[in-house]
Amino acid sequence: xxxxxxxxxxxxxxxxxxxxxxxxxxxxxxxxxxxxxxxxxxxxxxxxxxxxxxxxxxxxxxxxxxxxxxxxxxxxxxxxxxxxxxxxxxxxxxxxxxxxxxxxxxxxxxxxxxxxxxxxxxxxxxxxxxxxxxxxxxxxxxxxxxxxxxxxxxxxxxxxxxxxxxxxxxxxxxxxxxxxxxxxxxxxxxxxxxxxxxxxxxxxxxxxxxxxxxxxxxxxxxxxxxxxxxxxxxxxxxxxxxxxxxxxxxxxxxxxxxxxxxxxxxxxxxxxxxxxxxxxxxxxxxxxxxxxxxxxxxxxxxxxxxxxxxxxxxxxxxxxxxxxxxxxxxxxxxxxxxxxxxxxxxxxxxxxxxxxxx
Length: 358
Hints:
Layout: H1 4-7, E1 26-27, E2 38-43, E3 53-58, E4 63-65, H2 68-72, E5 82-88, E6 91-96, E7 101-106, E8 112-117, E9 121-126, E10 131-136, E11 141-146, E12 151-157, E13 163-169, E14 172-177, E15 184-189, E16 194-200, E17 206-211, E18 217-223, E19 228-236, E20 241-247, E21 253-259, E22 265-271, E23 281-286, E24 298-299, E25 308-311, E26 318-322, E27 331-335, E28 341-346, E29 351-357
Parallel strand pairs: 1-4
Antiparallel strand pairs: 2-3, 2-29, 3-4, 5-6, 6-7, 7-8, 9-10, 10-11, 11-12, 13-14, 14-15, 15-16, 17-18, 18-19, 19-20, 21-22, 22-23, 23-24, 25-26, 26-27, 27-28
């Protein structure tokens, strides 16, 4: 979910200009991939109209496989919006946001193994061998789930709304709440399941948190639609001190930050929904840079924007998802670290995240 109101602004103008890539992977319709070597593509589907799908690009076979859930489970449909996925042990946990559920699939055959009813689930963070947290939209609650029993065992109430991105550091979960009235994140004791500390960040509406190679935390905040300027804040999670704050231009809508293999370079997407190329593409910066990058690493074309970004932790190849305005099935382009396109392939509606299970 999120940003649906602005996606439609360019839906009818969405015209994709893509390079000709000779080694385009083959598409294997009606066939399941090997259980190893997969890059999963989380395809959101259409808000309130279903269509969520799980695609896989198998690097060992150089082939694309579509709608794994339907193929493995008798063509069942699961709703929308497919927000995120996390592997925990031998299961894949999938957050189906608008359908108010987390579903579990067996990682080796994609068979449905269970479902948990949770309102508007967003992301899952494993915090122990038996426990995970689930963030939720439109509430102030983190849900605690038992990984083995696949049940909700409790909740943690946070001081602000819309728990979103999370990461773990030294037996504590750091939780962003995408609340435009808030410029803080929360440190949660994963043993006692309670908020331990409130940590200030350099912008309002924190939404993502991730750790670099020096174990410093980067927090992305902002909400352009609600006039909250995007910002990146680098924090020392051991004490909560702000090390650096980077403020984006007021018209920059920033999302999906990820690190490269060595976690010394941060990549993120800037989106221009109005059809222009300003503040529109994939950007990257070293963790030692004093300023934000002025130019995109991968420029989006006019009437195009990107919606998914991932870096293969083995090869450092860069995966970029194009939703094509959410009016048709999306596509994925893969680049080497120099920005040269290697291959591209088609996927389901609204590619939003990648998961590397290799």
